[in-house]
Amino acid sequence: MTVLLMTPPMTQLNTPYPATAYLTGFLRSRGYDAVQRDPAIELFLEMMTAPALDIIRQHVEDNFESFEDDELPDAIYTFLAEFDRYRLAVEPVIRFLQSKDPSLALRIISRRFLPEGPAFDIIEQMEAVSGDVLKTAFGTLGVQDQAKYLATLFINDLSSVITQGVDPYFEVSRYGERLAAANPSFDNLYDTLMGEPSFSSEILEQLVEQYLEETQPSVVALTVPFPGNMLGALRIAQTCKAINPELPIVMGGGFVNTELRALKDPRIFEFVDFICLDDGERPFMTLLEFFDGQREIDELVRTYFLAEDEQGEPYVHLNQNTELHDIPQTDVGAPIYDGLPLTEYLSLCEMLNPMHRIWSDGRWNKLTIAHGCYWRKCSFCDVSLDYIDRYDAAGADILVDRIEELIAETGQTGFHFVDEAAPPKALFALANRLIERGVVISWWGNIRFEKTFTPERCQLLADSGCIAVSGGLEVASDRLLKLMKKGVSVEQVARVTKGFSEAGVLVHAYLMYGFPTQTEQESVDALEMVRQMMQEGCFQSAFWHRFAATVHSPIGLNPEEYGITLAERPDILFAENDVDFTDPTGTDHDMLGEGLRKALYNYMHGIGFDQPMSFWFERPVARTTMKKDLIAKAIHHILAID
């Protein structure tokens, strides 16, 4: 029995999404013949060739033939006007971003080789404020990084051309997302799948045909980590069924685990045969045993399939089988990347910020220190779901063994620990073991900014190879942090993040606005807190997220405790996650959000720290009530004690 695992488009371009590598390693450790492919990166690379641009131009000209030049979107106009330069540059740029042709950097930074579409406008906008931003960011010798930044803008322009002129569902990291995300109905996805395939879908079908011919699988398994992967997953399943209607198709992944927990529409089973929830090892192994005649269908674990009622009508059945436990972290084995095109991924530089770029730059081996979250209290989080609620850690020696296995396989010493929040004790144990065993790696991951991360322990993590951490400052308001049960204060976050920065570790802060009962005053004060922390060097990068109430969080389950009223929900047949709500506070979060993002973008480029808060907003807002030296005093107080 050969199992073919695939990640549908689109995820990251710089490194494989780890789900298939995790399952490949686990299945092989249990004696199964598992192979994997990444159609996400291969689809993108097929579209970034000179012959593909010829086809894209033809589609664009057909779709915009009735438009005058001044009516064309900027990206489309530049693409058509500069087509010969795009065609000439596209393949060399891809090779450069794959680190296969570093000498091209000198031509790229000349600003005469690449056509410059609207994505490049950001350079001119920043230069209007702070002078030569490229020289400031990269100096005179940062040739490779500067070229990588310009090449990334070039790729962004081409991606905009495809989205605006050829395939409206194509996005580099969110392919077809709006068709699936929290959509209670399967209608839009189904209609799209029944319609004419798009340009990208046709390429995807050709790739799938090639994979099936190469591997001759007995089973196909698809991971759907995000809403944007669902359309691609179903296109792959559709293609597999057209080639071999008897081939079993299994689906799982983060999007399924979060949003398809109330699935009722039987039409999805026209494409797939089984859908698994939560950690995939046990459900998938049980399915393979069922395919092999070793189990009955009613022994499947957390698996949807199509059944018939007493009248012979089809319905969606979820078989739970709680008698079988999940595979503990000590037994899941090390990920295996065999079968994935590790030399083909692109290292991108999407922003002139050293921390922010880590998500898109470099190829990272992915590992999990512990399953679930050790805290499990935040009111905005899906703490009722297995991926958060079930905490299970592997020991430090097991982790270092897996790290060494991955280095031996991939030749890469960069690691991204993908925990919801890496447990401090396990991190410290891992750091000590890495140092004791002389294992040299560079690693980063997500943490909670707890006081246990003292300056000494931050330095220990840095000595073990920690280059960056991310964590939630969220609303940057002590009242709201207490309401959301975050377990930290603003001043504590300032001290912890400063400790990491002093140890040479880059820090990214997740920020949130629009939390229930949050006022305009609290939003403005939060921005002032962020301004002070970034100016003091506590963290280098951050991102504002608009709060969303989810059905699986404490807020979604008990909205009255947070002063809001949930909107009446439609009958859920497909996806369910975000839910609209009414907050009687009446704050204009849309207006505030624009100003918060604008200010933060400038702060991340070292610009605008001296501007008053009102500068960033479209209309007058409340004056901040925060003292200008609040964060400085908090930091210096703890340093004096230390």
TrEMBL record:
The Swiss-Prot or TrEMBL record lists the needed cofactor(s) as: [4Fe-4S] cluster
Against Gene3D superfamilies, the record matches this protein to: Cobalamin-binding domain (3.40.50.280), tm_1862 like domain (3.80.30.20)
Q: Which UniProt keywords apply?
A: Iron, Iron-sulfur, Metal-binding, S-adenosyl-L-methionine
Question: Pfam families this protein is in?
Answer: Radical_SAM
Which PROSITE patterns does this UniProt record tie to the protein? B12_BINDING, RADICAL_SAM
Membrane-spanning parts: none
Ranges for domain Radical SAM core: 359-580
Record's SUPFAM superfamilies?
Radical SAM enzymes
Looking up InterPro entries in the UniProt record yields: BchE-like (IPR051198), Cobalamin-bd (IPR006158), Elp3/MiaA/NifB-like_rSAM (IPR006638), rSAM (IPR007197), rSAM_horseshoe (IPR023404), rSAM_sf (IPR058240)
Instruction: Report domain B12-binding positions.
Output: 156-298
Q: Identify this protein by name.
A: Radical SAM protein
